[in-house]
Design brief:
- The chain is about 40% helix and about 20% strand.
- It has helices spanning about 15-25, 55-65, 80-85, 85-105, 140-160, 190-200, 225-240, 260-270, 295-300, 310-325; strands spanning about 5-10, 30-35, 50, 70-75, 110-120, 130, 165-170, 170-175, 205-210, 220, 225, 250, 260, 275-280, 290.
- The strands form four sheets. It has a seven-stranded parallel beta sheet, with helices on both faces.
- α1 (about 15-25) crosses α7 (about 225-240), α4 packs parallel to α5 (about 140-160) and α8 (about 260-270) crosses α10 (about 310-325).
- The longest helix is centred in the N-terminal third of the chain and has 21 residues, at about 85-105.
- It is globular, with a radius of gyration of 19 Å.
Length: about 325
């Protein structure tokens, strides 16, 4: 029987890609998802437990019944804007539910967890290429909730011997190259799928927030990382923990940034469609440049992104979006 790994939020965008990568690597992914935001059809590589992470009895039963060896924790809320207007929802979902999970793991004698964190923990960084030891000063409840979980994991390590891999994503993008799964948030807030929805005519235009940044074309710069590259980094981190490795915190990005206008231009070239846009003022809290120093992940995990050039990201996303529309 393959080693079973509980994947919370495994019916979501990154979680489902991680399940496919786990299965490819010989693991048995067990998805735990309420399906409030996830998609049943994205669960293809192992069993689904449809339940809320706040249900402590169900979490404990799942860990025991499936003989879980380790956890990948993706479940949670991700909209920065919503977190500002409804912080309580984010602290309940991202922090309190994680506490339920950690207590259930402790009760079952489990101590290895790979955690889906975010570059939002850095807030407004004062360096352009961000290392893991940069100051963590979140500027919204979403980033704050993720940082709180990072600190919880450290304390559970000290008190209970937990080992964790905290993986801070920059801008996850793209879709499964084989077309089986892709990005489908409701509502959608991420740049590349919004651009592609505009190309498909499903959206009137793409909004460009800020054109006066001190960047080559005035728009903000972001580091885009292909979702399959992210998933493979999770598997490598899990392998390390199960092999007895110590806790670690790593950035997952490419070290290369692209402006909003560069993304739109690449999407127009790849799709063959003009993408209407509407330019507006900056959004509060948006840093001009957010690019990872991901050298530590390459050194520690032997991980190299293979699909994260901008053209490949957009091509795989476009293939999935056009197939979904058909």
């Amino acid at each position: 029987m393959p080693t079973s790994v509980l994947v919370t939020g495994g019916a979501g965008y990154i979680g489902s890609h991680a399940c496919k990568a786990l299965a490819r690597a010989g693991y048995r992914p067990v998805t735990y998802d309420s399906l409030e935001l996830g998609h049943r059809e994205a669960v293809r590589w192992g069993p689904l437990v449809e339940a809320d992470l706040a249900d402590s009895a169900r979490v404990a039963d799942t860990l025991k019944r499936f003989d879980i060896a380790a956890v990948m924790h993706f479940a949670g809320l991700i909209s920065v804007g919503e977190s500002v207007t409804n912080p309580g929802r984010y602290f309940r979902s991202n922090v309190m539910n994680t506490l339920v999970l950690l207590e259930a793991m402790q009760g079952q004698g489990l101590s290895r967890i790979v955690f889906s964190s975010t570059a939002a923990v850095y807030g407004l960084p004062d360096v352009e290429l961000i290392p893991e030891d940069a100051a963590q000063r979140p500027v919204n409840p979403y980033g704050e909730s993720k940082l709180m979980v990072e600190r919880m994991l450290q304390w559970y390590g000290s008190a209970h011997g937990f080992t964790h891999a905290t993986l801070r994503y920059f801008n996850a993008a793209g879709a499964d190259p084989e077309g089986e799964i892709g990005e489908d948030h409701q509502p959608e807030t991420h740049l590349i799928p919004l651009v592609l929805e505009a190309a498909l005519g499903n959206r009137a235009q793409i909004d460009v927030f800020g054109t006066d940044y001190a960047t080559p074309d005035g728009t903000a710069i972001r580091d885009f990382i292909h979702v399959q590259d992210l998933a493979e980094a999770h598997v490598k981190a899990l392998d390390r923990l199960l092999g007895g490795g110590l806790s670690l915190t790593l950035n997952l990005g490419t070290g290369v940034g692209h402006t909003v206008r560069e993304v739109i231009a690449a999407a127009e070239r790849i799709t063959g469609h003009r993408i209407p846009r509407r330019e507006g003022p900056r959004r509060p809290g948006d840093p001009p440049v957010l690019v990872a120093d991901a050298s530590r992940a390459r050194e520690v995990l032997g991980w190299t992104p293979g699909l994260s050039d901008l053209d490949t990201i957009i091509k795989t996303a476009w293939a999935w979006h056009t197939r979904k529309k058909a």
